[in-house]
Design brief:
This protein is mostly beta strands and 124 residues long. It is built from no helices and eleven strands.
Length: 124
């Protein structure tokens, strides 16, 4: 049974930084892709970043490229999302997700495991 628990959300000013954490449990994650998605009010949940657990290969949405960085610590079974140069439009609930395959996908339907979400608010 895979369980994902996000933490680290909060309130930050425009231009500031925040680091989100996702604690993963329930098995080994070799061969998985770990992803971060976000959902703003009135909008669909969208892909933000992904990383292959075994090799650390990363992918980013164009809207966050150069500002956000995803990483994983295999010893701690934890995935991180470092968010820098935050903008007001980054305000959303951020979700950690896991897919038991390294075939790339940005479609939320291919991720069977999800955390509860953590709120990020960027003030003007």
């Amino acid at each position: 049974q895979v369980q994902l628990v996000e933490s680290g959300g909060g309130l930050v000013q425009t231009g500031g930084s925040l680091r989100l954490s996702c604690a993963a449990s329930g098995g080994t994650f070799r061969g998985y892709i770990m992803g971060w998605f976000r959902q703003a009010p009135g909008k669909e949940r969208e892909f933000v970043a992904g990383v292959t657990w075994s090799s650390g290969i990363t992918s980013y949405a164009d809207s966050v490229k150069g500002r956000f960085a995803i990483s994983r610590d295999s010893d701690k079974n934890t995935v991180y999302l470092q968010m820098n140069s935050l903008k007001f439009e980054d305000t959303a609930v951020y979700y950690c997700a896991a897919k038991p395959s390294e075939v790339p996908s940005r479609n939320r339907g291919w991720y069977p495991y999800w955390g509860q979400g953590t709120q990020v608010i960027v003030s003007l």
